[in-house]
């Protein structure tokens, strides 16, 4: 075993959690002064030693980091031990011991489980870790104290190692037993003396008692005769009263039987009335809910009605306007067609006129161009002087005309291209119009088909709604039936409950709950059973005829509630569940124990009409295996006879149990039980009613389930139809929307085509103008080219002049024709514009407006669909309202009927109550008479009992003395009795128990003598036990001392090569033992005096003498004692050892012969004993008790040191100084030498009493280098089997370490890190 790890958190300077994984061998902790190294050892002591056992709140707070000022509210230290060797009595490889403290808590844990301090100490002690004598933990600066201890302290250490504490405890117990025995013996002796005196007094009292008894016997005989005569007279009076009482009892029975019948009827009436009241209350609550629901439905129906009226009003408007709008649209479309035909004709006429006009205009322009050229030529004839000048001007004009010609040609090309694009658009619009016309036809066809489908769906929905109404009515009827059955079932269950006592019913209810939980939840139930539970026997069979119910119930009794389970294992599991849930007692029948091989069915009488075997009337549940066997166990030996006589015959002759139909029982032994049982046997009747109502309820529930399924299917079908109607309406809406969109698109395209055509006409007109200009320009260019070819002239030639005149006349004629055509064209154009304006601004606008109105009407058609859905909803809610109203009316009728029944029952109950009161009065009157008789009877009975008591108290009397008084009168007996009483007055103070006391005291005296002898024998045995324990203790102590002494010498030799050491065991002197024994005798005398004083506490003077004597003895003893201990403490704790005085230590650090050492030992031993006696006077009483009071044989272990000089000093100073070494006290050694001696002693103890680990805090602080090296070597040699945890500032111990931990201290917080020992620079910490 060794410490595997240490965890510290919040303890002293360790605010944060630190963890040390320790080596199994040597672990060294280094760090600067004040860094927190010693706090690690404090943490070990905090858990493993008794130093921190008793901590107050303030002391615990001081152990917290920064005294709790830094926010740390709790701290803990956890030590983990490796338990591979099983030193701890716990079957774990790792043992964790943890202590946690706070301002208000101090908790201990073993393996993370909270424990008590006592249990923790016990575990540590069992592992060899003592919390009181911890030589394996050496704190800082206390190593030298191991050698500075007193001799008796070292002796205590050796005793602890030797295990003599057990001997000391046994010796103390033996001493206490001796003291107790002496006290008891003294008490017994005082009692014996008292008995002796008392027996002498009782001898005189016995004679007086004999005379008294003779007179008393005569008195008792006379009193017996008087009392006996009075008792006979009283008995005669009692017999007379009992005869009268019998007659009163018969009358009382009749009255009570009649009262019982009336009260039974009243109970039945009350139950029936309560049933009606329950129905009324339940129906009233439902009525409130229904009225509230009806109010909501009425509001909803009214809201839907209002909405429906508005929708109908809108629908009427829609139906009135749509036809009118359609008719107007048709008229407008017909007029548009007419106007379009007129427009076509007018346009054709206008185009013809315009073409004619254009032709004339073209001819006119051509002529006009020629004329202009001729006039221009005529003008040029006189303007130019030469042909060259003329040609140059003509060329310039031709160039200008050619440029103009190019522009005109470009414009013509542009207009031609634009006209081609317009023609393409027109063709595209024509195609679109054709497609739209086809779409319009298809939409109209789809609308018609959609309308047919909607009518079909509406018809189907109406059919399903009617079917739903019928299902609702059926559901309402089933609900009413279920409510009536439920009320009856509750009443039956309540009656069934009253057939059982309370505990039996609770058990029945709880097991039914468990059975229901298992059946409903299956594998998810919290009651895990290996088999099935079938319920009580009552529920698992049926009876062929209800007339046998009473007989079956009488035969079974409480066995009807025996629970059937599949196996006996299931029964055991259920019993465990019952114990866990505190369920009362229940009997189980395991069906696996009722199979064919086990049950034995009897041979019942055959062919007899007098009896019926009860088992043949019963039928077990089919799905329960072996239920017949369970029935045979209960009813197999039962017959149902015709009457009691037949039943008695079968019961006695054939050993059957017979039960009549009325429930009278004849057991197999012939005993009969029965009588009036009007309300006794009701279980089978109640259960039959419950089963019948449950069967009816199951049928109703099955019908309700089927009805709900049908209703659900109808609801789903209605929902499907509604969805189909909605889809149909959406389709219709879509079709109409598509139709309107197509119509609007057609109108838009037509308007667009009209505009394009107008644009084309305008561009054609422009094109014609440009072509005419091109022709004129070409003519002008041609004329100028020809002129350039002609010679220079002064005037036009004849042909040109003639052409000029002809063209002038032709133009005038053309102007006249054109003027007429312009007027016609203007008229035609105005007609065309008028028709176009009519179409565009009037008819087309009317068509658009009518289409918009029709579209709005279609929107009203959507509202028509809304109206239909609203109407359906209204119809459905109205049906619900009507249904609810019908239910309310039915409930009101039922409530009226029930109220009438309740009134009738109340009336009947009132009559029965009056009859009950009359009977009660009669019974009370009869009771008064009976009470008088009873009172008189009680008085006589009390008198009789008193007389009987008097006679019994008189005791046994001689028969002949009593017979002598037989013929004496009562007066004579009374006179003799008074005379004897006067004689007895002389003996009023006689001790009537003198004889008994004499016998008792004699017997007790003999017992006490025997007890005294036994106590003396016990004392002798105890003394022998104490002597035996002392011998064993001495042997163990000497063996341990010798072993430690040998190891001490070896360890010291390892540390000081030229030195030697020895322990010295000091024994006490005889005078010291005698002095202590004298003190012990004084104490024993005091205790004896105290016991005597307690026995004779009434003698005040003796008490004062005892107190003075005790005070005197105490003062003398206090002068002799060297401590302040009390006598009892000295006896218990200091009286175990008078042989040894202590243990001394002898060491030599130089060369020295053994003889000198021996002589020094003897002198030192004498000195040590003297010092021990002197030191004992300086110790306090408590210290003496704890440290020197356990041994009277040995005084202690002493230390003697003799110093020699080292080898080099002796060679240098051999001639100068050769004096003998002088013995000195341990306190005269240097600190290093004391440390060496202490370490040698610790290492010696370690070898004799190995500890699993050793903790040394700076033990090498005062050592020289050679000693440090020797200590390090010892630790290194022993670390294989023992764990060492040391702190040091020196390199010698560090170099031998297996692990090194460096402690750092910053910001008031200590931290630890593990390093390789070779990498640690120890110098920086010194």
Task: Considering the chains and any ligands shown, give keywords for the structure.
1326 residues; alpha/beta; 6-stranded antiparallel β-sheet; 6-stranded mixed β-sheet; 26 helices
How would you sum up this structure, described in words?
The chain has a six-stranded antiparallel β-sheet with strand order 2-1-4-5-6-7. Strands 8-23-24-3-25-26 form a six-stranded mixed β-sheet. The protein has 26 helices and 26 strands. The chain is of the alpha/beta class and 1326 residues long.
- Helix-and-strand structural type: alpha/beta
Mean pLDDT: 76
Distance between the termini: 33 Å
Quaternary organisation of the protein chains: single chain
Quick one: overall form? flat
- Into which percent range does the helicity of residues fall? 55-70%
Unreliable stretches, pLDDT < 50, 5 or more residues? 1075-1136, 1151-1190, 1201-1224
The number of helical elements comes to 26
Q: Strand count, sense and closure of the main sheet?
A: 6 strands, antiparallel
Number of strands: 26
Give the strand order, joined by hyphens, for the main sheet: 2-1-4-5-6-7
Radius of gyration: 69 Å
Strand content: 5-15%
Short structural description:
With 1326 residues, the protein is an alpha/beta fold.
Describe the SSE topology.
Layout (H helix, E strand, L loop, with lengths): L1 E8 L8 E4 L4 E6 L5 H12 L8 H7 L10 E9 L11 E9 L2 E6 L2 E3 L1 H10 L10 E2 L6 H4 L2 H12 L2 H219 L3 H111 L4 H20 L11 E4 L4 E3 L5 H8 L6 E3 L2 H13 L7 E3 L20 E3 L4 E3 L6 H9 L2 E4 L2 H11 L2 E3 L5 E2 L5 E2 L9 H107 L8 H157 L4 H5 L6 H15 L9 H62 L4 E8 L2 H26 L4 H21 L6 H7 L5 E10 L5 H23 L4 H7 L5 E10 L4 H7 L9 E2 L6 H18 L4 E5 L7 H14 L4 E5 L3 H5 L3 E8 L2 E7 L11
Parallel strand pairs: 3-24, 3-25, 8-23, 11-12, 15-16, 20-21, 23-24
Antiparallel strand pairs: 1-2, 1-4, 4-5, 5-6, 6-7, 9-11, 10-14, 13-15, 16-17, 17-18, 19-20, 19-21, 21-22, 25-26
């Amino acid at each position: 075993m060794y410490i595997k790890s240490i965890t510290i958190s919040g303890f002293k300077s360790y605010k944060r959690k630190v963890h040390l994984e320790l080596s199994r061998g040597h672990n060294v902790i280094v760090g600067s002064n004040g860094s927190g190294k010693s706090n690690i050892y404090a943490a070990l002591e905090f858990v493993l030693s008794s130093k921190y056992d008793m901590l107050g709140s303030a002391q615990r707070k001081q152990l917290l980091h920064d005294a709790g000022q830094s926010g740390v509210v709790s701290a803990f230290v956890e030590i983990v031990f490796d338990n591979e060797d099983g030193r701890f009595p716990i079957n774990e490889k790792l043992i964790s011991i943890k202590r946690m403290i706070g301002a208000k808590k101090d908790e201990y844990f073993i393996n993370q489980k909270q424990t008590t301090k006592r249990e923790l100490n016990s575990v540590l002690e069992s592992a060899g870790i003592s919390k009181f004598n911890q030589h394996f933990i050496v704190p800082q600066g206390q190593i030298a104290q191991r050698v500075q201890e007193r001799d008796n302290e070292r002796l205590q250490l050796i005793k602890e190692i030797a295990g003599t504490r057990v001997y000391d405890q046994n010796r103390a117990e033996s001493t206490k037993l001796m003291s107790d025995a002496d006290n008891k013996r003294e008490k017994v002796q005082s009692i014996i003396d008292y008995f002796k005196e008392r027996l002498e007094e009782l001898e005189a009292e016995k004679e007086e008692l004999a005379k008294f008894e003779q007179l008393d016997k005569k008195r008792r005989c006379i009193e017996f005769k008087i009392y006996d005569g009075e008792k006979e007279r009283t008995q005669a009076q009692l017999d007379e009263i009992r005869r009268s009482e019998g007659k009163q009892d018969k009358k009382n029975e009749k009255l009570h039987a009649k009262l019982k019948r009336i009260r039974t009827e009243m109970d039945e009436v009350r139950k029936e009335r309560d049933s009606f009241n329950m129905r009324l209350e339940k129906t009233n609550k439902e009525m409130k809910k229904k009225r509230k629901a009806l109010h909501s439905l009425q509001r909803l129906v009214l809201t839907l009605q209002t909405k429906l009226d508005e929708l109908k009003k809108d629908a009427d408007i829609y139906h009135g306007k749509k036809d009118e709008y359609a008719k107007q649209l048709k008229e407008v479309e017909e007029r548009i067609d007419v106007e379009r035909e007129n427009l076509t004709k007018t346009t054709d006429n206008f185009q013809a006129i315009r073409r004619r006009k254009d032709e004339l205009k073209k001819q006119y322009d051509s002529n006009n161009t020629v004329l202009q050229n001729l006039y221009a030529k005529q003008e040029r004839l006189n303007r130019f002087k030469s042909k060259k000048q003329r040609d140059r001007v003509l060329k310039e004009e031709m160039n200008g005309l050619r440029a103009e010609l190019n522009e005109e040609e470009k414009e013509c090309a542009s207009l031609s291209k634009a006209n081609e694009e317009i023609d393409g658009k027109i063709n595209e619009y024509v195609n679109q119009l054709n497609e739209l016309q086809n779409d319009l036809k298809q939409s109209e066809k789809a609308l018609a088909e959609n309308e047919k489908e909607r009518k079909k769906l509406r018809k189907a929905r109406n059919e399903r709604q009617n079917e739903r109404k019928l299902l609702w009515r059926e559901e309402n009827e089933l609900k009413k039936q279920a409510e009536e059955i439920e009320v009856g079932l509750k009443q039956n269950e309540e009656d069934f409950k009253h057939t059982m006592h309370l505990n039996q019913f609770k058990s029945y209810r709880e097991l039914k709950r468990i059975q229901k939980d298992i059946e409903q939840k299956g594998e998810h139930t919290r009651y895990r059973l290996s088999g099935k539970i079938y319920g009580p026997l009552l529920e698992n069979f049926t009876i062929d005829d209800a007339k046998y119910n009473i007989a079956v119930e009488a035969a079974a009794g409480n066995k009807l509630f025996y629970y059937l389970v599949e196996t006996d294992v299931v029964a055991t599991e259920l019993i465990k569940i019952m114990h866990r849930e505190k369920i009362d007692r229940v009997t189980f029948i395991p069906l696996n124990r009722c199979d064919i091989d086990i049950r034995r069915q009897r041979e019942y009488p055959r062919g007899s009409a007098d009896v019926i075997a009860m088992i043949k009337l019963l039928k077990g549940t089919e799905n329960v295996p072996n239920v017949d066997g369970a029935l045979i166990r209960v009813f197999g030996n039962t017959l149902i006879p015709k009457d009691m006589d037949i039943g008695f015959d079968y019961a006695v002759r054939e050993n059957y149990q017979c039960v009549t139909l009325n429930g009278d029982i004849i057991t197999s032994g012939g005993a009969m039980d029965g009588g009036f049982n009007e309300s006794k046997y009701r279980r089978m009747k109640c259960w039959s009613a419950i089963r019948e109502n449950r069967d009816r309820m199951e049928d109703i529930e099955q019908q309700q389930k089927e009805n709900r399924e049908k209703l659900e299917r109808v609801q789903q079908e209605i929902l499907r139809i509604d969805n189909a109607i909605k889809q149909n309406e959406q389709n219709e809406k879509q079709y109409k929307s598509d139709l309107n969109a197509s119509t609007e698109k057609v109108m838009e395209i037509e308007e667009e085509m009209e505009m394009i055509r107008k644009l084309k006409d305008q561009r054609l007109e422009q094109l014609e103008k440009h072509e005419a200009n091109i022709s004129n320009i070409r003519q002008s260019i041609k004329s100028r080219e020809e002129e350039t070819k002609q010679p220079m002239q002064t005037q036009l030639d004849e042909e040109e002049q003639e052409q000029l005149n002809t063209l002038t006349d032709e133009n005038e004629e053309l102007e006249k024709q054109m003027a007429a055509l312009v007027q016609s064209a203007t008229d035609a154009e105005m007609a065309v514009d008028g028709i176009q304006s009519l179409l565009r601004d009037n008819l087309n606008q009317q068509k658009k407006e009518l289409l918009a109105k029709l579209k709005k009407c279609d929107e009203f058609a959507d509202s028509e669909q809304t109206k239909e859905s609203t109407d359906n909803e209204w119809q459905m809610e109205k049906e619900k309202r009507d249904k609810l109203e019908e239910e309310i009316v039915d409930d009101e009728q039922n409530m009226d009927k029930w109220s009438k029944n309740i009134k009738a029952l109340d009336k009947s109950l009132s009559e029965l109550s009056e009859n009950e009161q009359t009977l009660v009065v009669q019974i009370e009157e009869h009771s008064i008479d009976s009470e008088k008789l009873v009172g008189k009877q009680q008085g006589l009975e009390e008198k009789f009992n008193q007389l009987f008591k008097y006679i019994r108290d008189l005791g046994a009397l001689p028969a002949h003395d009593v017979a002598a008084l037989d013929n004496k009168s009562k007066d004579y007996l009374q006179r003799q009795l008074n005379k004897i009483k006067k004689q007895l007055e002389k003996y009023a103070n006689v001790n009537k128990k003198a004889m008994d006391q004499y016998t008792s005291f004699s017997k007790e005296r003999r017992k006490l003598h025997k007890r005294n002898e036994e106590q003396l024998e016990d004392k002798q045995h105890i003394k022998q036990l104490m002597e035996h324990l002392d011998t064993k203790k001495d042997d163990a102590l000497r063996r341990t001392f010798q072993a430690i002494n040998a190891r001490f010498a070896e360890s010291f030799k390892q540390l000081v090569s030229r030195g030697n050491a020895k322990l010295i065991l000091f024994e006490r002197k005889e005078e010291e033992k005698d002095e202590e024994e004298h003190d012990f005798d004084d104490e024993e005398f005091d205790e004896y005096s105290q016991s005597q004083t307690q026995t004779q506490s009434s003698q005040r003077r003796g008490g004062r003498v005892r107190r003075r004597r005790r005070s005197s003895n105490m003062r003398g003893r206090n002068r002799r004692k060297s401590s302040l201990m009390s006598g009892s403490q000295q006896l218990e704790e200091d009286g175990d050892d008078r042989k040894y005085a202590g243990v001394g230590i002898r060491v030599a650090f130089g060369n020295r012969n053994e003889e000198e050492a021996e002589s020094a030992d003897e002198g030192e031993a004498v000195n040590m004993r003297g010092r021990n006696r002197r030191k004992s006077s300086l110790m306090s009483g408590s210290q003496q008790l704890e440290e020197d009071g356990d041994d009277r044989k040995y005084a202690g272990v002493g230390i003697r040191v003799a110093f020699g000089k080292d080898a080099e000093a002796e060679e240098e100073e051999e001639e100068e100084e050769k004096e003998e070494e002088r013995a000195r006290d341990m306190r005269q050694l240097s600190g290093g030498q004391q440390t060496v001696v202490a370490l040698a002693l610790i290492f010696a103890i370690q070898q004799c009493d190995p500890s699993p680990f050793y903790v040394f805090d700076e033990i090498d602080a005062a050592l020289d280098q050679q000693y440090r090296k020797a200590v390090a070597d010892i630790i290194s040699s022993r670390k294989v089997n023992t764990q060492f945890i040391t702190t040091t500032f020196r390199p010698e111990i560090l170099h031998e370490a297996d692990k090194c931990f460096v402690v750092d201290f910053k910001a008031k917080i200590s931290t630890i890190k593990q390093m390789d020992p070779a990498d640690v620079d120890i110098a920086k910490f010194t």
